């Protein structure tokens, strides 16, 4: 079975590379901002590169914020990437006063490294290590440390540590992905992470859908 994957187009991301990586990993992929089409998907993917407030403004104006909330609350398979992870939280230091989707308790915070050798944005390959009960639950997806590609200045800080799937070192250990039931979201970019990223996406498709 090739899962039918809908990639949400809200004008904030590298949609082509995400769709291509998912296709290479075995999915039938379509890119759309039409709710009537997206709601037929087996898996909803929300990627994103850009500002938190601009993304929320677009989602609200197109009524896509409510669609995403309903999808996640119905426990349907969901994958968020980069900004698509951050939007799940209640707020972000990037955009004070802007409310996120509020699906996960917590906020998004900025890197403030004391070591001047650590540049912001955090950019490039870095180690991702599964942790805790979620790491054990998703062992079939990621069994141990692996390197993936990052480009970001902000990262999520969940109120519930039990949501954290992986941690990554930069300034200190930070949450680089979360998982809960059929929801998985990564701060890193699987679609930019070569063979390791494709392997992860293939495993996620099996875990979330097949």
**Beta content:** 25-35%
Which strand order does the major sheet show?
2-1-3-4-12-11-10-7-8
| H/E element sequence | EHEHEHHEHEEEHEEEEEH
CATH-level-4 superfamily name: Class I glutamine amidotransferase (GATase) domain
Euclidean distance between termini CA atoms: 7 Å
Largest sheet: 9 strands, mixed
Q: Tell me the total number of β-strands.
A: 12
The helix tally amounts to 7
Chain-averaged pLDDT: 96
Kindly identify the CATH topology.
Rossmann fold
Relative helix content: 25-40%
Segments where pLDDT lies below 50 for 5+ residues? Answer: none
Structural summary, described in words:
28% of the residues lie in helices and 33% in strands. By secondary structure, the chain is an alpha/beta fold. The protein has one domain: Rossmann fold (3-Layer(aba) Sandwich). Strand 10 and strand 11 form a beta hairpin. The longest helix is centred in the C-terminal third of the chain and has 15 residues. It starts with a strand and ends with a helix.
């Amino acid at each position: 079975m090739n899962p039918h994957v809908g990639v949400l187009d809200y004008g904030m991301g590298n949609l082509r590379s995400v769709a291509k990586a998912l296709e290479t990993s075995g999915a039938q992929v379509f890119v759309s901002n039409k709710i009537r089409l997206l709601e037929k998907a087996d898996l909803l993917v929300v990627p994103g590169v850009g500002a938190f407030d601009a993304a929320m403004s677009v989602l609200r104006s197109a009524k896509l914020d409510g669609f995403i909330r309903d999808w996640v609350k119905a426990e349907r398979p969901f994958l968020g990437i980069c900004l698509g992870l951050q939007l799940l939280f209640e707020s972000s230091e990037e955009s004070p006063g802007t409310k996120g989707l509020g699906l996960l308790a917590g906020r998004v915070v900025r890197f403030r490294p004391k070591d001047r050798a650590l540049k912001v944005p955090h950019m490039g390959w870095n180690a991702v290590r599964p942790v805790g009960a979620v790491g054990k639950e998703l062992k079939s997806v990621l069994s141990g440390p692996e390197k993936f590609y990052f480009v970001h200045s902000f990262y999520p800080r969940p109120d519930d540590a039990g949501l954290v799937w992986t941690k990554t070192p930069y300034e200190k250990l930070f949450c680089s992905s979360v998982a809960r039931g059929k929801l998985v979201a990564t701060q890193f970019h699987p679609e930019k992470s070569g063979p390791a990223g494709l392997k992860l996406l293939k495993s996620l498709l099996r875990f979330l859908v097949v």
